[in-house]
Amino acid sequence: MGNVGHAIFLTVIILALLGRTTADPTWKLIDGLLKFVSVGSKGVWGVNRNDDIFYRSGTLEDGEASGSGWVNIAGKLKQISSGHSVWGVNANDDIFIRQGLTASNPTGTSWLNVAGQLKQLDVSSTANQVWGVNTNDNIYRRTGITTDLPAGTNWEQVDGLLKFVSVGPAGVWGVNANDDIFYRTGTFGNEASAGSGWEHIEGKLKQISSGDNIVWGVNVNDDIFIREGISLRTPAGTGWKQIPGKLKQVETGLSGQQAWGVNSGDYIFQRTRLTATRPSDIFQLPTIDGYSVRVGDCPGNDIWVIYGDGITLQDCAERCTSHPDCVSFMFFDNKRCFPKSRTCEETSQDNPKNVFYDKIIDPLPSIDGFSARRGDCPGNDIWSIYGDGITLSDCAERCTSHADCVAFMFFDSKRCFPKTKTCKDTNKDNPKNVFYDKPFVVTERNVALNKMASQSSLFRSEYPAERAVDGNTGTVLYPRQECTHTGLEYEPWWKVDLGDTYVISHVTVINRGDCCGERLQNFMVRVGPFEDLRENTPCGDIYSETPSDGETIDVRCAEPISGRWVSVQLIGREDYLSLCEVQVFSGSDPKSVRLTDETSKRWRDDLRCGSEFPAPNATRGECDPDSCFPCCSQSGYCGNTPEHCDCADCVNYGTIYGVEKSPVWSGLSEEALLSVSWREDFRCGPGFSAPGAEVAECNPHSCNPCCSGSGWCGNTEDHCGCPDCVDYRSHGVPGIKWREDGRCGPEFPAPGADPGECDPISLFPCCSAAGECGGTAAHCKCEGCIDFRKSPGTGADLSREVPGFLLRVGDCPGNDIWSLYGDDITLDACAERCNSHADCVAFMFFDNRRCFPKTKTCKKMNKDNRKNVFYDKESATLLSVEGYTVRTGDCPGNDIWSIYGDEITLQDCAERCTSHADCVAFMFFDNRRCFPKTKTCEDTSKENPKNVFYDKKIELPPFVDGFSVRRGDCPGNDIWSIYGDGITLSDCAERCTSHADCVAFMFFDNKRCFPKTKTCKDTNKDNPKNVFYDKDIVSMTASSERGPEFTAQNSKLDWQETATAAGAWSAQPWLMFDLGRSKRVTSVVTQGRNYSPDWPGESHEEWVMSYSISYGDENGDKVWYAGDDGETVVFEGNTDRDSKVRHDFSDFSGPFTARFVKIHPRTWHGWVSMRAELDTDPYLDF
């Protein structure tokens, strides 16, 4: 991730960096280092000191988001701007725009060079506007920007001279070389205007940012300001207000209340809000003795609810004061009084007339040997003691005398709860609860004494890094040589290797005493497992005060930090660093800490790690040292292979925390080692032999029991679940001999069996002749069928089968017709009970003692008791009905009618449905029930196998040019809803085509037409008469463009050249189609470059002679189109400018399905110039 990857990621608020007080709204420190940051509708982007480019993940179209990590983008830029698109300038002042930015690809695809040169530019998020200034401070704005042409067409010079310009909803603002501030009149709320002149604004700023009714800026001292009072009446605002903090560059977010910026040390900050007017500022809150007051309410926990027009505040307070359980009350407008038994940390402020009063509780009573705080840590009680006369000393004595008691909660001389655990934050709903923690006594020691130390540079050989850990606390550098001393440099550092892992609570720094104590200002202490100090966790805040000569400074970590390395570094300053002694205090023995509970967990459940993947209690996610995956790889994954544990940038947390796992073959004799069938380097499969196997396996009892298709042992889906994977845990285990997709037989091997089998104790225990697992006679009793229940050791005892029933082990609890108990119940008698009952579809039989005939079955058995045997009645052959497809089960609900009777025929039921206009399906049950329905469903409920479901066969809907068609609907987003008996499909399509916002429409049975502004990925298919038409919208991007006249949009088939637009896309190496959603691509058509005599250049003979194709759903790079031989197909291209060459994919290996398709030119005539079109199947979902 470039320099950003080595930046500090703090979880504490860095007050010193911004010079603010904790009462101000927070500036949140963001991980990374940047010299310039920009926020807009295309997310947060920035550049660092090396001109590397970064995008902040998770910030696209979300101006309030902080994001989740930095993504390095190819290229170099010195300044960047995010708005309706992303623009930037490089060190040569060349201008670029990012192409291919979409919701699914927020980082885009490529950079397009735009004609011109600028040193700085700014992009609006709310209009198609880009302004910039060049090296001579001349001002320019980009014209001709549209959705189809985001790069625009020309630069228009604007009068005036500015060194920095910004465009936004508040208009165009800028500063000149003298830091004078200017507003462009006529641009507030009208960004598309070039304005009419420059209005000078009082003040001085070196950089400025225009936002939503607000302008942000910083001056030469890095002070931060906002312009207030900006409105339609006063577009230039009314005055400047200083915002606490120090930044060298700031940019307003989408809301104007939020901003991003960087300081002089390139640290990145986000401000999520400005100080808003609180409801309590609207009117003066009345006070009352004995209570504190705030606006809002804490809903619930009311002792009483009192209503009336004459209730006074004094009356309400008196009600609370006189009740022993009342701790607060809400008072509303002399009409309502709510005394409460609890309070809350934050009130609900929906109604500013609600005023909340908290009873002022007496100071906490103290008791020797315990620290006191308000609230409770619920749970973990040793006992619960109630009574009116319980004293605090009695409760403390109970805890002190119990070996496991670490704390207790005491309530109002009535309740005492000694506890085995404490908690970090108490629940303070009831302020009468007081919590007492037994102090944890730790004997601390200085673990840095005489350890190995180093520093960033050496001023003289007499002042080495070891001077700070030699035990000498003297403070004279010269002539006693009692301190360290670096050279003059930016952010110098000193660090010590403790040699082992300790839990550090605080660090004492002793400053130089003979002079120059102020040089230690703005230092930070870090603790952690990494030699690179920037990867470690800050201990406390930056020390921003000016230290005195010889001062001893104790830095307390907010929470104890485990680590081996401790560092001291100056932040954001160039100076010398001199330390006379650094004492690192710990109360733990090496390797004693085991971070396993959730409150101190430093690793993630998704096995990601490193600086881009913070964990709950670590800014750099670690790996669980006690797990199978203790090592973090260079790419940020926890694992246990050499690529995770032994590479240059790998981190082995097992080593760091002293959890050394022995190899799985340790302790084996030399003779036993010769028979081991796995390898030490985790390789496996063909090409890798082991001491006891020609083809190496994986240890089935280790953390890596599976062999991947690429020959590595591991424990992920890529190792255990792929078609070529081998799970060695399954060898000889019947439970892993079947497949999840229900296929079986010689053509379908399972991880532990070839041929694949079927689960003998499942609903589908038999393999049919066609290779499918099931439970019908066609699976279990046909010629070529295999009934795996008859295999030994499966737990399915088939000593007595019952004709007409299929057997499984287990039970489907519930749905019993009767429950029969006895010592001599026979299996035949139980089966007869079920056969003789019309509603019985299955029965459970237990050990000749229990019989449970049932009205329903189930797919997944409860196998807690292996003596339970379940018998499913075999389903009869499903009867077909012309015009319908048939399946077992039901789609409950949506009945037109419910018809019951003893002699209802299937034909009668089908006729009922066929004759009803809204009927699309029906359920038929045993010649007794018929349910015609208005909707169907994708998966039927099969609890009752006598239910049979019939779906009406719907004809293929007609094709509409320019649209693809699928079954169903995307509810909502209707432009209009048109009803009628004579609406035609072509009328409905025309309505959509003629409306600028219409992207799709739903058409129903010549009766309904719904043009829509949005589509959806998956349609609702409950009603098969609904047909959905998506407008075919194809966008094209390219890896590069020859110039602004050769854009990817010029690649449309039959595109005609003009004086300003070339007759084709021209550049290399690829052109990409975005089909909007995944579609079946059937053919490709190409042309060369069209020619027009209006083109200012010479006549051109340019076309692509051959090309290849790649495609995918996330991008166009997943699969290369290959022939039947597996080789990438090279398609013949064009031989002239305008002839069309078509290739049908059915002539090769067949059509393919994808959203993104790339054409990769291989050979060409003249230049790579191409026009192209893809044909897609409009009936993708049919």
TrEMBL record:
This is TECPR1 protein. SMART domains: ChtBD1, FTP, PAN_AP, TECPR. The keyword Cell cycle does not apply. InterPro entries: Beta-propeller_rpt_TECPR, Chitin-bd_1, FA58C, FTP1, Galactose-bd-like_sf, Pan_app, Tectonin_beta-prop. Gene3D superfamilies: Galactose-binding domain-like (2.60.120.260), Hepatocyte Growth Factor (3.50.4.10). PANTHER family: DYSFERLIN-RELATED, FISH-EGG LECTIN-LIKE ISOFORM X1-RELATED. Residues 1016-1177 form the F5/8 type C domain. Keywords: Calcium, Disulfide bond, Lectin, Metal-binding, Signal. Residues 1-23 form the signal peptide. GO terms for molecular function: carbohydrate binding; chitin binding; metal ion binding. It comes from the Eukaryota.
